[in-house]
Amino acid sequence: MARRNGGFIGTDGLDAPDPPTAITPTAGDAQVSVAFTAPTDTGTSAITGFVAQVSTDGTAYSAGSGTGTSSPIVVSSLTNGTAYTAKVWAINAYGTSSPSDASSSVTALGDRALFTYYHAGRIYGSTFNISTTGNSTNFGYTSVPSHQYAGGFSSYTRAVVAADDGTTSSAINYTTISTTGSWATFGRLFSSATNGFTGASNSVTGLIFGGNNSSTAEIESLTIATLGNATGFGSLTVSRGFGGACASSTRALFAGGGPDYSDPKNTIDYVTIASSGNAVDFGNLTANIYGLTGTGSSTRGLFAGGSNSSTYLNVIQYVTIASTGNASDFGDLTVARQYFGATSNATRAVFGGGNSPGAFSNVIDYVTIASTGNASDFGDLNAAKQGYVGMSQCHGGLA
Question: Which one of 85, 107, 129 terminates a domain?
């Protein structure tokens, strides 16, 4: 094949390498790792290096650049929440190849997680990075009174928590995940539930499901980037609170819970996030469960723990979000518990805190979402509490 120079000037265009192929980007925290296959036809001399460049519009590949001598090449200093495509060039002593074909699009994601818990009338936070292991550190607390058993969700940058504050409606607070200790008022819910909300979101819309009230089947929504009160979205198929929720970028699921702990349900509902309306039956959990938690990747939802009347559970179950059907066994938590939090990145789900038999828990454990098996120890939260809510910059609805 005749070769020619691409975006760079070479000494002899006919002797430059062919372009790399199979360009595969993987999103990271403010970066993209670009994998590729080196060309078999290297030109007149050996390849001395590669250049990877990314674009936000598919036209100008000038949003970031990285160099290296082999695959993959990391392009850093990018903006989390922004989608990028990549091209790669090969270089030898005689010049630079034409550009590779453009890759598929990926969105740079942060890796920071935030677990909130109730204490002395306020919501406090613990933070850590999902891809590592270790103990959490203190984040800060809400500036306005709140209550335990909150519902929460997050975008690439903002975490939102809704909970009863002892008034006729319920407070919504928010923070910027990449900072610490700065909480502010977002708006209010209008649900009649006293607590037991559960939240899930994609990058744009947050949903709050149900609550601890026998007549509460409410689903409410808000736009995460815009302050204001929540609005009605639709209704669950069964009135209940204290369930588990997860989401992809298009669909949110709500599982289990009940009007109270003595009447747990096994129902899984789903909604299409972009379209308001009542929930539709998805399938069933493996048992009737109250006080469970949920999280997942963009393709698989996980539901874990909870209680079945007076029995604490360590069970983890999973479903494929884009389909419908009953949940399947995934494995076991390291500790049986209820009223705890969960969040995830594209590959790993993390569970924290809760009420275990006889005591509150500070345990953090994790699983690899795409496989099945028992959870492994991650570290400890900086406070042993129940009512934890998990959020992150990189959960399933954002991937």
Answer: 107
